[in-house]
């Protein structure tokens, strides 16, 4: 019957539509079998390497705008971990022209700075010598700078007597609940006798929670890096943050209340850090790509010690976010890039003041953080007069003339910390000695709000929160009254 | 051994506030809880005296506490508001019908007038019938989009000046995280606003619980023994939002101020000027605010009524349709047929015939997806027909005529042709020149 007819009919094909591209062949060269799949693209090994290097070179080229007359001094942060190891190789190759000429170097100076945290993690293996050799053997034209983290405590960056060379001791009269932090300045060299390494351990022991410790470490590393860049007179700092890392930081920083500084901490700002610009050339690569590159190039990676190694997921905010992003990326492969792209569309807030850098994280200080907090929380007795919602009473302190050298008068420095760092401080025990640095030299002396006020009397502080991880479940379908009780049971005292 | 309240220093502390970690007594907790909401209302100037305010009431803890507290504050501070309860009946058997009972009880307890609007009367679809169509995975999209509009319509029926909803700090923090994860920059900027401005005839809506922890709401309801319904929706929560929610709960467990911190971050986000944001306009079919020519509800309804339930839900389907664009040179070919698709929107008749080029684009996308659907169906029928043909032939060799197989083969062949033809019609609608040549 219609056998012949049926055979001759081709399968229905839509008109005017493109066929899908095949996954059996490298999407880039279209010649060989693919070996790697990055997101939705299939590459063969050489093509992958090429595209990885190209991504790096395009970001570097756009950021540096090199020419024979413009040779910047560059500092690269190097931890020895996956992404910074890949970055070191890329920067090492990039920093010299391929052809041997008299003037081969693209940079006036290339410093590779490694911050040594051995003092903090004595029990975790740390191959300082191996890291040094990995740099010096392969890249002889590079200046290697190994800095112990303790050094952050003995810095003297400014000549301002108020800030340089002082450690600020968190005074027990600070009130964490009300968001009021007082400090007693201590001379770094004269007043404390113990070694810097010992004091560093003490500082981290004063942090009550793992999240606080991690934050503190991050800020101190950052401070030190900026300080080293100033020391070496560098114009640029290159960091190995990958797309994955940036996505984690975006989310974690949002969770910590650092939304204000997010654009600055991800993209950098040419005028903020004493004119030092940040470049993150791997910002479009996944950490998986960096690991793959290391594998293909046979580069040795060194483990980076951290507070949360071998800890459960819920031990700190960073660790939780990291596991969350990794887990989500497995199911929804575009998550990381979506997060970083979203963060890239944000700009520094209009309210960013020009010279007020947070004493701890060096990011801008919002003007209204204390007011905002007081406006949304009520802490007073029903019988007392209803305070004005703007909470002005807590902010305006009568301006007194600054008298710093007169020993132990506590300085009320709350307005010098950003919102998130105030939270960090509230999780520190009193007596913690923090290195507080001001890089904008003009700022420290000028601000009229600076007013040491005697806060006496009430010694009762509410900072005894121990390091605990609460387990809360929300999986139940039907919430009975008893289950509702369970939900809030942690907060009930009766 | 009892600890004293850290606020009044007189009574025994009954709870630890999640927001500040202070140990406080019950009276102080009531005072703090209510006054914070009062401050939020006063500082943001949410209401004007004499406003008619519709409270979106689901019967759950948030809206129950909201109704209770608003009534209390209205009397205590003399806001001078007319309060109404407004409930949406999504038509979910075993969930909403039960919770509506709670709302009705609340109505009697608080002595507030109640209005119930159902999806069925607005859209002629209940959630039960939608779930039958789309399955469990994406039904929350429909429910959420429709509820938003239904609330507005219900408030219009009540002639209300303002809608308040029980969104708490946890919900807002969760939305901030969601919008970062999804890359929805426009919503990221909008989602922390305490109230949406009432422009273009839209009713302003606000969230007085913006800075109130979910936990404290639960505590308040628990201590005051308020009557509320406490079951989660029987259609499981949206998968992606579930991730964000679990993450937020874990964050809160590590640091209880995390929720407020996220809102703080969210408020600080500002979008670069160079980033293109979708502009808000009005839907050309129903007149509701929309970011495209057609509002989401209209697109979803169109999908439901055409039998393409994933329309407007499935992002990949949309982007694939966009990647093979139909040339826009022949826009004149759009027929009246497209606009005359019956829509259950009550007020669509007036604006339904006015179609600008942008509305055409929307319909083009819809057509594009439908075309793909057709070609896929045609292919499967063609393959089935081929299989039956093979069966028919193999028996034919043995001298047996398999009439059954023959019939099925012809049926599938016909269907394949039919869908092929339909796809071609859709395609030629946009390619009239190529068809002529």
TrEMBL record, chain A:
Biased composition (Polar residues): 1-11
GO cellular component: cytosol
Region annotation Disordered: where it falls in the sequence: 1-22, 443-469
Pathway this chain belongs to: tRNA modification; 5-methoxycarbonylmethyl-2-thiouridine-tRNA biosynthesis
InterPro entries named in the record: CTU2, Rossmann-like_a/b/a_fold
Biological process per Gene Ontology, one example term: tRNA wobble position uridine thiolation
Record localization: Cytoplasm
The entry's keywords: Cytoplasm, tRNA processing
One Gene Ontology MF term: tRNA binding
The organism's place on the tree of life at top rank: Eukaryota
Physiological role: Plays a central role in 2-thiolation of mcm(5)S(2)U at tRNA wobble positions of tRNA(Lys), tRNA(Glu) and tRNA(Gln). May act by forming a heterodimer with NCS6 that ligates sulfur from thiocarboxylated URM1 onto the uridine of tRNAs at wobble position. Prior mcm(5) tRNA modification by the elongator complex is required for 2-thiolation. May also be involved in protein urmylation.
HAMAP family named among the record's database cross-references: CTU2
PANTHER family: CYTOPLASMIC TRNA 2-THIOLATION PROTEIN 2
Family: Belongs to the CTU2/NCS2 family.
Protein name: Cytoplasmic tRNA 2-thiolation protein 2
UniProtKB/TrEMBL annotation, chain B:
Gene3D superfamilies: HUPs
Major location category of this protein: cytoplasm
Region of interest (Disordered), ranges: 316-351
Key word Transport present: no
Domain Cytoplasmic tRNA 2-thiolation protein 1 C-terminal: residue ranges: 282-311
GO BP terms, alphabetized: protein urmylation; tRNA wobble position uridine thiolation
InterPro entries: CTU1-like_ATP-bd, CTU1_C, Ncs6/Tuc1/Ctu1, Rossmann-like_a/b/a_fold, TilS/TtcA_N
EC number: 2.7.7.-
Protein name, per record: Cytoplasmic tRNA 2-thiolation protein 1
């Amino acid at each position: 019957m219609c056998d012949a007819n049926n055979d001759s009919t081709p399968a229905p094909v839509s008109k005017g539509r493109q066929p899908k591209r095949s996954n059996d062949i490298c999407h880039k060269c279209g010649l060989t079998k693919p070996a790697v799949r990055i997101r939705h693209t299939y590459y063969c090994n050489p093509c992958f390497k090429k595209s990885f290097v190209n991504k790096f070179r395009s970001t570097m080229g756009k950021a540096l705008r090199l020419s024979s007359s413009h040779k910047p001094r560059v500092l690269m942060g190097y931890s020895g971990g996956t992404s910074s190891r890949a970055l070191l190789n890329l920067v090492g190759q990039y920093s010299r022209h391929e052809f041997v000429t008299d003037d081969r170097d693209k940079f006036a100076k290339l410093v590779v700075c490694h911050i040594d945290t051995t003092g903090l993690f004595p029990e975790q293996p740390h191959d300082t010598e191996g890291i040094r050799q990995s740099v010096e053997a392969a890249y002889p034209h590079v200046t290697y700078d190994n800095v112990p983290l303790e050094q952050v405590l003995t810095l003297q960056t400014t000549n301002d007597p108020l800030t340089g060379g002082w450690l600020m001791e968190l005074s027990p009269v600070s009130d964490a609940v009300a968001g009021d932090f007082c400090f007693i300045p201590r001379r770094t060299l004269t007043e404390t006798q113990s070694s810097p390494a010992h004091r560093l351990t003490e500082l981290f022991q004063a942090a009550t929670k793992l999240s606080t410790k991690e934050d503190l470490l991050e800020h101190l590393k950052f401070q030190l890096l900026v300080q080293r860049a100033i020391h070496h007179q560098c114009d640029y700092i290159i960091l190995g943050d990958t797309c994955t890392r940036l996505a984690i930081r975006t989310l974690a920083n949002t969770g910590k209340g650092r939304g204000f500084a997010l654009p600055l901490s991800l993209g950098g700002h040419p005028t903020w850090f004493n004119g030092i610009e940040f470049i993150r050339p791997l910002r479009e690569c996944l950490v998986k790509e960096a690991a793959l590159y290391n594998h293909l190039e046979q580069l040795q990676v060194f483990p980076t010690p951290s507070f949360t190694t071998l800890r459960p997921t819920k031990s700190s905010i960073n660790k939780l976010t990291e596991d969350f992003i990794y887990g989500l990326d497995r199911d929804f492969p575009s998550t990381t890039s979506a997060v970083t792209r979203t963060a890239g569309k944000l700009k520094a807030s209009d309210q960013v003041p020009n010279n007020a850098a947070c004493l701890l994280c060096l990011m801008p200080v919002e003007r209204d953080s204390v007011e905002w907090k007081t406006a949304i929380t009520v802490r007073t007795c029903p019988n007392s007069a209803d305070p004005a919602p703007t909470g002005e009473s807590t902010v305006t302190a009568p301006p007194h003339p600054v008298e710093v050298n007169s020993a132990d008068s506590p300085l009320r420095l709350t307005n010098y910390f950003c919102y998130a760092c105030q939270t960090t401080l509230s999780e520190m025990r009193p007596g913690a000695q923090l290195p507080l640095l001001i890089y904008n030299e003009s700022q420290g002396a000028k601000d009229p709000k600076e007013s040491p006020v005697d806060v006496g009397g009430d010694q009762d502080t509410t900072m005894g929160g121990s390091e605990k991880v609460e387990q809360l479940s929300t999986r139940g379908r039907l919430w009975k009254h008893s289950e509702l009780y369970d939900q809030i049971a942690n907060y009930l005292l009766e | 051994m009892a600890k004293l309240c850290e606020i009044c220093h007189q009574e025994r502390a009954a709870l630890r506030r999640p927001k500040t970690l202070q140990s406080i007594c019950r009276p102080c907790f009531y005072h703090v809880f209510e006054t914070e909401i009062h401050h939020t209302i006063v500082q943001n100037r949410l209401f004007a005296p004499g406003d008619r305010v519709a409270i979106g009431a689901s019967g759950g803890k948030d809206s129950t506490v909201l109704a209770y507290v608003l009534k209390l504050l209205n009397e205590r501070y003399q806001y001078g508001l007319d309060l109404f309860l407004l409930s949406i009946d999504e038509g979910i058997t075993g969930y909403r019908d039960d919770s509506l009972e709670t709302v009705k009880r609340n109505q009697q307890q608080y002595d507030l007038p109640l209005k119930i609007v159902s999806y069925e009367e607005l859209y002629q679809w209940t959630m039960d019938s939608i779930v039958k169509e789309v399955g469990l995975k994406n039904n929350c999209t429909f429910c959420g989009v429709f509820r938003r509009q239904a609330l507005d319509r219900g408030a219009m029926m009540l002639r209300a000046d303002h809608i308040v909803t029980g969104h708490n700090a946890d919900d807002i923090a969760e939305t901030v995280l969601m919008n970062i994860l999804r890359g929805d920059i426009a919503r990221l900027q909008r989602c922390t606003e305490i109230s949406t401005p009432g422009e273009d005839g839209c009713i302003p809506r606000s969230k007085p619980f913006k800075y109130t922890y979910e936990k404290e709401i639960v505590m308040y309801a628990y201590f005051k023994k308020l009557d509320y319904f406490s079951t989660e929706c029987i259609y499981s929560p949206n998968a992606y939002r579930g991730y964000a929610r679990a993450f937020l709960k874990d964050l809160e467990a590590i640091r209880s101020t995390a929720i407020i911190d996220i809102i703080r971050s969210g408020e600080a986000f500002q979008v670069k000027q160079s980033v293109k944001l979708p502009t808000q306009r009005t839907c050309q079919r129903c007149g509701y605010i929309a970011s495209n020519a057609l509002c989401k509800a209209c697109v979803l309804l169109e999908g439901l009524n055409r039998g393409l339930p994933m329309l407007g839900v499935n992002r990949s389907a949309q982007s694939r349709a966009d990647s093979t664009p139909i040339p826009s040179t022949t826009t004149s070919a759009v027929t009246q047929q497209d606009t005359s698709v019956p829509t259950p929107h009550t007020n669509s008749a007036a604006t339904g015939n006015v179609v600008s080029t942008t509305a055409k684009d929307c319909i083009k996308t819809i057509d594009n997806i439908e075309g793909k659907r057709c070609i896929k169906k045609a292919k499967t029928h063609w393959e089935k027909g081929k299989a039956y043909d093979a069966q028919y032939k193999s028996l034919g060799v043995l001298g047996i005529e398999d009439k059954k197989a023959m019939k099925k083969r012809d049926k599938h062949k016909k269907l394949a042709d039919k869908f092929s033809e339909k796809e071609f019609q859709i395609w030629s609608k946009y390619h009239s020149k190529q068809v002529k040549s």
